[in-house]
C-alpha cells in the first residue's frame, strides 16, 4: 500500500511538473514569436509605465498606446478610461494588452489602518484580511498590479514613510510581506482576483540617514543581509512577481544604478525572475546622484544595472532605440527586459482575456455601497490595531452612560483618519472618532465636542500640508477662545477624550520631521484640559512613533490609534467602551527623545553594557537621557492581565533536531482578552556579535477570565542561522537564550545548546 502511494504521488507530482514544463514551453514559444515580430520601439514601449497627467493628457496617452509605445498604466482607477485604453492597446501593431497598476498600500476603496497600525495587530489573519480585501476591491476595479507591499525596515521615526511599512523588525515585517504576497497574488496569477504585488522599495529606503527623505543609506553588508534585506527576500520567496527599486543610494551607488543589488543579489543570488520597476522619476534622478552625465546616459546606466520598467517614463522611448543603434546597448538588453514584462502579462492571462475585470458599466457608487462586509472587516482590523499605552486606575473602558467631552483637532476629521496613500478611498464615507463614539452610546446627547486647537500654530506647516490640495483646514478663531470652549465642555463632562497627533500629510512620502513632539498648539490644549482635573484619555492619531513623554505623564489613559481608515471612529469606540479588549502591540519603539534615534530593541551588546556593573560612567549610555525608549517594541496593554511562563522540550538541539518551546498563558483578570506571546532568541557567543534579542516567532491566544492556554514555537537549526565572520549563512554550535514574554523587554529566559552534530 505504502509503495502504491509513493508511486501515485510520484506520478501526480511528475504530472504537474510536466504540465508546468509544457506550459513554460508554450509561454516561451509564444513570447519568442511575439518578440520576433516587434520593432525595437514596440519593445521599448513595453518598458514604459505611464500615468495620465501634466503634458501627457488622456488623448495623447491613448495615441501612444495605439502606437505600441506604452506597456502599462498607473494611477487611473476610472473603469471606462481603462477599458478605452485597453481597446486602443488591442489596435496596436502586435495587440499587446496593457496592465493597470495602483498604489494599494492599506486598502483600496475600503481603507484599512496604515500598515504600521496593521502590524500592531501582530496577527497573521488580520494582515491577510487587509491584503485579501484590497486585492478583491482592486481587481473589481480592473487593476492588475499594485506597488505593495512596502517592507522597508524602519528604525528612524523622523522618516515620514514609516507609516507605510510594518516597523522595525525583520521577522514581523517579513511575515507581513509574505502574507501580502500570498493573499494578493493568490496561487495563480490568472485567478481573476489575483493582484500582482511589487515589493518595495528595494533596497534600504527605510534607512535614510538622519531620517531625511531621499537621503543616502550606507550600511555593512552583514547588517543588510541579516536585517534590512530579509523582508524583500521573504516577499520574493513568497512569489512576488515584481520589485520596485528604491530612490536612494545604497553604499554609494543609487539603487537604480546598482548592478550589484539589482542583478547580482536579486537575480543571481535570489533567482528573482519577475519584473524590476524603477520608482517615479528615478532614471532622471541618476543625473543628480552624479552617476549619469545626462538623460541618455541615465537610461544606459539604469538598463545596465537591471531596471526593466521605467515608472512614469520620460526617457526610455527617447533614448533606448538610439542607444541600441549606436551599439552602446544590445537588442538583447532590451529583449531581456521586455521578456520579463511579456512573461508577466502572459501569466496574468492578459493575452487570453485583456479586458479581465474591466466592466465599463461598473458604478463606483454601487461598489462603495456594496462593500458593507468589507467595512465590517475594516472595523475589526482597525480595533485590533489600537495599542493601549496607559490605563491608570483602569479608567478605561468607559461606561456608555458617561458624559464625554470629545475634543481635539483630529476628533472629527474624515480626511485624516484615512491616512496617506488612500487615493481610491472616500473621506466622506469615513467614520470619525466623534461619530464612532456617538454611534456607540445610548444617548448621543451625552457627548459634547470641541475642536480645541489647530493642529499647529505654524503657518509654514499648513503651507506644506496644503501645497497641492487643501487637506488640513486652519481655524482662524483665536487660540485662547478655542481652548476656553474646550475647557468649558470638559468641565461639564465626566471624562475628556482628546484626539491629538499628526495630520495625515505629516506621515507620508516627503514628510520627514526632526521634532517628534506634539505641536505647541496641542500641548497648550492638553495643559488646559489637564488643569480641569477631569479624567483625561489621550488618543494619539499619527503615522509614526512620537515623543510623548510629557503627555504620557499627563494622561490617565493613552491609546495609539494610528490612522485607522474608513471604520476608524467605530473601532476607537469599540475599544473605549470595552466592546473590544485592546490587544495590539507596538511594531516600532517609541523614543524617549529624538536624540536617542535610532532606538530599537535588537541592538548589539557593547563591551560596556549599560545597567549592569559600573552603572553610570564608562558604560554605553547618555548622561542626559535613558537608553531605553519610552515604549518598547512589542509593548501594549489590555483591560485584563496575563501571566506567561514557558518550558523547553530539551536543553540540547542536535544539528538535525528541534526544540519545542511551550508557553503557558493564563488570563488572571476579569475580562476576556487576547495576548500575543513573543519569542526572542539570543545567540550568546558567535563568530560575530549577535543582537541582545531577535524576534523569531509570535502567536496570539484569546482567553476567558481565569482561563489557561498554551502556544508553541518549534525552533529548528535553520532559525539559528546568521551571516558569520566569513559572510556564510550558518548556525554555529553553542549556547542560545530563548526569551518569552509579552514585549521585547522580557527578561524571562532559558538556555539551550546547539550541538556539533
Ligand atoms: C513612491 C512609490 C510609489 C510611486 C507611485 C513614488 O513617489 O516612492 O512608493 O509606488 O510613487 O505612486
Throw out a few tags for this protein:
alpha/beta, six-stranded mixed beta sheet, five-stranded parallel beta sheet, 26 strands, globular, disordered N terminus, binds beta-D-glucopyranose
In angstroms, what is the radius of gyration? 27 Å
> Between the first and last Cα atoms, what is the distance in angstroms?
35 Å
Strand order in the largest sheet: 11-16-15-14-12-13
What proportion of the residues is helical, as a percent range? 25-40%
Structure, explained:
With 757 residues, the chain is an alpha/beta fold. The strands form 7 sheets. Strands 11-16-15-14-12-13 form a 6-stranded mixed β-sheet, sandwiched between helices. The protein is 34% helix and 17% strand. The chain contains 23 helices and 26 strands. The structure holds beta-D-glucopyranose. Beta-D-glucopyranose is lined by residues 103, 147, 200, 279-280, 509.
List the helices and strands and how they pair.
Elements: H1 2-37, H2 40-46, E1 48-50, H3 58-66, E2 72-74, H4 79-89, E3 99-102, H5 115-120, H6 124-140, E4 145-146, H7 170-185, E5 198-202, H8 221-228, H9 230-237, E6 242-245, E7 249-250, E8 253-254, H10 259-269, E9 275-277, H11 282-289, H12 295-305, E10 310-311, H13 316-325, H14 331-347, H15 364-370, H16 372-383, E11 387-391, E12 404-407, H17 414-418, H18 433-440, E13 447-450, H19 459-465, H20 479-492, E14 495-501, H21 520-531, E15 536-541, H22 549-554, E16 557-560, H23 568-576, E17 642-648, E18 652-653, E19 659-667, E20 673-683, E21 694-703, E22 708-715, E23 722-723, E24 729-730, E25 734-741, E26 749-754
Helix pairs in contact: 1-14, 2-13, 2-14, 3-4, 6-7, 6-16, 7-9, 11-12, 12-13, 16-23, 18-23, 20-21
Bound molecules: beta-D-glucopyranose.
Beta-D-glucopyranose binds near residues 147, 200, 279 and 280.
